[in-house]
Design brief:
315 residues, alpha/beta, Collagenase (Catalytic Domain), 6-stranded mixed sheet, 6 strands
Length: 315
């Protein structure tokens, strides 16, 4: 679709819109079911489909990062911070790095790209987008990050709606600089996927997050329709790993105050403990794979890591 056919709506506009799905009708609230269970707590061991809900069939919602690359990224981050005179601390984020350190207020301009198909499926409402930004602002407040919706852009393209040609459509539509968060709303085969800040230098033209449009507030994916998929993926965009990164290892996600966990969580199983290392699994952490309703927190260590990654790669 030629870029001249883009319908652009100012981010601050309060115009009403109708959410359309296939056939032009509003999607029923029970339209898509991520969790086929009828109650109780499900774990990755009992339901692989639910375990992979956040990250798709392969369980991955970002490019793979090995332990060796984690350490290399930590060294590079420390080197960049030292060169800029910002910080000389190590690549981990824990209590020793937090002591006496205030978070820097960070404001992120946001551009939302609504990828509709030719029939109008995927055309989320302005209200849903406004609510999504409100969710991001609420969830990241404790990390010192705020989000300002600059523009909403709507496209009609069947391939883009179905997340085909993603590298092409992102490079054609991405706007803003290194600090700008671009969010593409698509009909995904998984809930979301994100790029990391340290990849911007090489792949800045596709930097941002893609999320399933039905995961927005009011969407039809049961247990995953409060907008928290965007929170999770934005966490990656700001430099956070999963809390289960690397499994049950002391390296884990390189944040001292998130206990190591061996596998991702599904549902909201209180007291879950998948790892012999200290602490129960951080099932309420936005960087696990729990239900939206289970998510409540970033830790202070994660906030400090976001601070460092912002200073190193997005400031």
């Amino acid at each position: 679709m030629p870029l001249s056919n883009i319908i652009r709506l100012a981010g601050a506009a309060g115009l009403a819109a109708t959410a359309l799905t296939v056939g032009g009708l509003a999607a029923p609230v029970m339209g898509r079911v991520a969790d086929p269970g009828t109650g109780g707590c499900l774990t990755p061991d009992t339901n692989e489909e639910v375990a992979a809900a956040r990250g798709g069939p392969t369980g991955v919602d970002h490019r793979g990062i090995s332990a060796a690359e984690q350490r290399a990224i930590a060294r590079r981050t420390s080197s960049r911070l030292a060169a800029s005179g910002t910080s000389g601390t190590s690549g981990t984020s824990g209590p020793s790095q937090r002591a006496g350190t205030a978070l820097v207020a960070k404001t992120v301009p946001v551009y939302v790209h609504v990828m509709r198909d030719a029939a109008g499926a995927g055309d989320v409402t302005n209200w849903q987008i406004t609510q999504l930004i409100a969710v991001l602002n609420s969830d990241f407040a404790q990390a010192g990050v705020s989000f300002n919706l600059i523009d909403t852009r709507r496209y009609n393209n069947d391939l883009w709606h179905n997340d085909w040609q993603s590298a092409r459509y992102r490079s054609l539509t991405r706007v803003g600089g290194v600090r700008a968060l671009n969010i593409w709303l698509v009909d995904a085969r998984w809930f979301g996927i994100a790029t990391f800040p340290w990849d911007y230098a090489a792949e800045g033209d596709i930097d941002g997050i893609r999320i399933d449009f039905e995961s927005l507030p009011g969407g039809s994916i049961i247990h995953y329709n409060e907008g928290k998929t965007a929170t999770h993926e934005t966490g990656h965009w700001l430099g956070l790993f999963h809390t289960f990164q690397g499994g049950c290892t002391r390296l884990n996600d390189q944040v001292d105050d998130t206990p190591a966990q061996a596998t991702p969580t599904s549902g909201c199983p209180a007291g879950r403990d998948s790892c012999m290392l200290p602490g129960t699994d951080p099932i309420h952490n936005y960087m696990d794979y729990s239900w939206d309703s289970c998510y409540t927190e970033f830790t202070q260590g994660q906030a400090q890591r976001i601070d460092r990654m912002w200073a190193a790669y997005r400031a």
